[in-house]
Structure formats: structure tokens, C-alpha cells
Amino acid sequence: MSQIEEVNVDQFKHLVSERALTGETMLLNMGPQHPSTHGVLRLLLELDGEIVVNCIPDIGFLHTGIEKNMEAKTYQKAEVMTDRLDYMNTMGNNLSYIMAVEKLVDLDVPPRAQALRVILVELQRIASHLVWLGTSGLDLGAMSMFLYCFREREQILDIFELVSGQRMMTTYIRPGGVWRDVPVEFEKAVRDFIKIFPKRIDEYESLLTKNPLFVDRMVDIGYLSKETALSYGVTGPVLRASGVNWDLRKARPYMGYEQYDFNVPTRTEGDTYARYVVRIDELRESLKIVEQALNKLPMGLVHSQNRKFVPPPRSEIGTSMEALIHHFKLWTEGFPAPKNSVYSAIESPRGELGMYLEGDGGPKPHRIHLRTPSFDNLGVIPEIVKGHLVADLVAILASIDIVLGDIDR
Amino acid sequence: MGVEQKLGNMGVVTTSLEGMVNWSRTNAMWPMLFGLACCAIEMMSAQASDYDMSRFGMELMRASPRQSDLMIVAGRVSKKMGPVLRRLYDQMPEPKWVIAMGDCASCGGVFNNYAIYQGVDEVVPVDVYVAGCPPRPEALIHGVLTVYEKVKGETFKQYAEKYK
Predict the structure, then answer these.
(1) ipTM given for this complex
(2) Nearest by CB to A150, which of B50, B76, B114?
(3) Does the domain spanning B27-159 belong to CATH 3.40.50.12280?
(4) Which of A269, A391, B84, B105 is the most exposed place for a label (fewest CB within 10 A)?
(5) Are A151 and B50 within 8 A, CB to CB?
(6) Where are the domains of chain A?
């Protein structure tokens, strides 16, 4: 095993100020094992007393080679890798990848499958924001937030387990639809959640939103201007808290999002508190979408009838020779995709999650590239932490809501 | 702990020193607050309201390796993270135990590639492997209880050999 290399100041002297080289300011290492970096992020801080002068992120501690691994698998099998990418948003990752595959091979999706996808992805958004709320509360010393948020998150995970058999790595969304229809208990489980959750959001808000300790830690901390956000390619709630109304669900609707009535919460303050408020509002908006989608959930098939891409049901295999051949071909060889390149993006809880997919005529993708929101959002952290205290850096880092699996992939 | 039944009216309990030491070790084992990937979220769930690991005397996650007894390697270990993980392990005071949580930490899981260690036992000695991708919180709690079983069975002779 390789050893940790000795670090010489010469290696990063172009990144820090001249005062660091004379010893006037202190260089401090934060991470990769640090409870408030939300994963294995390493930050090299240049400190003047307790004020952050420079902040240099060092990523790659979770580099997994997901893109390369996906290229070695057929289109169906590569999907399991996307679950492990941004592990707070597994349904969303599946959706983004499957949308790219469907675009590449031009596959139809029945309306019921689309509505189910919307319900599950929005539930996933709520679950992701709950983890964010719980852990950022924990970072600021509000331990009870963690316990409350995980209580509701468990309820969502139970719904996922009901439909897919797994709590986190669901792989439920498949090319041409979803894995199988939801069980009869699904509707009641989601309705129960819709019923209790608004009260629970009020409960979180009564604990935090007007809490002077919390507000003091959040207001006017980590100001991100609209121009900086746009120039760094920041997306998601962070961008919307800086006053840009950009949400792919509204701007480039997919999966029938245009049918649902919801607002895109935006704030203009651009500080840590604004990002908190935007996410709390998003919880309510997502719940609205779930409710609407559940109310008009169409009946019918949950996957496409195109047998070249979607395996036939079990009942057909015993009676139809053609179905047997299709099944055999799909699970041994996979389906070929044309020589073409596509890009499809969704609005993940963290921003624009895009998949670039290049087919080469065979059953495996020639190239996959992921445009992950956390990576671009991380880039803005050095810009906005300058001049703040180290304790505020923790709040800022929590408010950006990065996931290291998403950054390093 | 059933001590009350053993005490009787005498107010005295007899046990072996090993039994006493092992008992005290198992009932206040502090894991290190150290998450790598997906499994870390399930580790958090195991700590949170529904599963509540503090029932087993583990409510205190320590952020510093110098204060912890148990390392839960929750997630995939990349080649860049390996040396850091080893340093964290070396910084933990004896006696210490390691749980490899999840398939990635146990054997590389789905990631059989250039970037990931095919099991964290290439880096640190592992006591208990917990299967699953990610394991359910119950599975992690079972893993921790399995470590307890292991600790309860240790003898002074084994300590001496282990820490020679």
C-alpha cells in the first residue's frame, strides 16, 4: 500500500497568498476525515487567526471509476452503477441515466410509468433534503433535527422498499418504464406520508426558522451573488437562493412535469439562510407534486411493449417462442444502441444532473460522462468562504449540500 | 445486565477478571464518526430514531480516532483514501476493532476496478464483515453485536499475543 506523501509548501504556493509563505498566516488541513465535510472532502485552509483567507478543496478520496465501469457493462447492467453515484438521490440518478438510454434508442414510456417515476423521484428529493436538514442541523448543534428528519426519511425508505425491495439502491426505473407495477399497499403508504408530512415540516420550521441561535449562524453568511453563481455553473437550490429562477422541471420539462402545478421557490438574498429557506419550501412543493401525481395516476402498463428493449413478462415466456428469444437475447447480449450521442438532464435535489451517453452500435456504451451538480457547486465554496470564520465554513459547507460520491464518482 | 440476580442478598458477585474487563469493553464501545460513501447514510440511520444504536451503549460517535475503539469502514475505499484510512487506524488506541460495513468494504462489491481496494482487509485487519449493499441498519447492529461476542470471548493470553 502506498504511503501518505509528505507535502511540500512549494506544491501549492500558487494557491495560497504570499503571507502564508512567510508564516504570517497558518495553513490548516481539514479532512478527509472530518464530521462536517459531509464525506471525504479535504480542505486546505489558510487562516489568519480564525478568519479563512483561502480555501483549497482537494477531491478524489472517493474516486470509484464509475464512468469507466459503466462503459464495460451493457445498457441495462450499467444502471446499478448510477445508484451508487449520488447515494442520496438514487431514484433521480436512475431516471437521468434511463432517460438518456431511452433518448438514444428512441423508446416510449407509458403514462403510468412516467407518473410513478415522478412520484418516486419527488419522494427521493424529500428524503435527500431531509438528510441535508438533519445533518446541517447537527453541524450547527441542533441534534434533535437529525432525529426528527431521519424519522420521516425512514417512512420514505419504507415506500422504496415496498416498490423495489431495497431501501437505498433501488434500480427501480428501467429502460422503457419501471421494474414492475407498484403493490396495492403503495397508494396508502404514500397517502399516509402526504397526510403527516406538512405538519412535520411545520415542526422543523418551528424549531429552526425563527430560532435566534440558528438565524445568527445563517443570515449574511456565505453570500453568493447571482453573477458568481452563474459563472461557476452552480445549479439547484443554491442557484435559486441567489435569485435565478432556473429549474429543469419548469425550464425543460421531462416525464410530464408540465402537467403538475407547482412553484419554484426562489430567494434573492443568496446567503446560507436563503438556501435553507429554499430547500424547506422545496419540501412543500415536492409534496404537492407527489399528491397531484398520485391523484391522477393513470391505469395501464408500466413498461413499453417494445420487446427489443423491454423483457417480456414471465407468463409469456412459457407460451411464446418469440418472447423466449427476446428474453434470452436481452439478458445475454443486451440491446444494441445506434451510433449517436445524447445528453439528458434532470433536476436532482442538488441541481442539474446530466448524463452524456455515446453509443457505438453495440450493446455497451462507448462513452459515458456525468455532469454532476455537486462538482460544480463545490467549485464556488472557495469563493464564498473568504473572510468568514472557520465555524461559518461549516455552515456554508452544509448549506451547499455536496455529496462526495457525486463529486468524485 | 442480570447482575442483580447474581448479587443475591450478599451484595457480592464473583467473576473472572477477563469476564469483567470484556464486559466493560462491550458496554461502552465508541465507534469513530467516519463515513465514506453510501453505507455511511445507513450508519447514520442506525444511529437515528428508528434503529437507535444507543440501546447497545454506542450512542457516542467520536470524531477523533484517539477517542474511539471501533472503526466502522462504511463504504468503498479508494486508492487515495487507503493511506488515510490506515493512518486513522494507527491513531486509534488499543484495544481496537474494525467492522467492514457493506460489500465494497468487504470485497470490493460491484466496483471491481482500478480505483477501489478489493476489500478493506488489504489495508487494516478486519474483525467482522457485514454484507449488503448497503446493509440494513439491523445488519450493522448485528455486526456490532457480533464484535461484542468476539470481545467477550477474548482471554488474557490472546491480549498478550495480540499486543506483543
Answers:
(1) 0.85
(2) B50
(3) yes
(4) A391
(5) yes
(6) 66-305+335-382
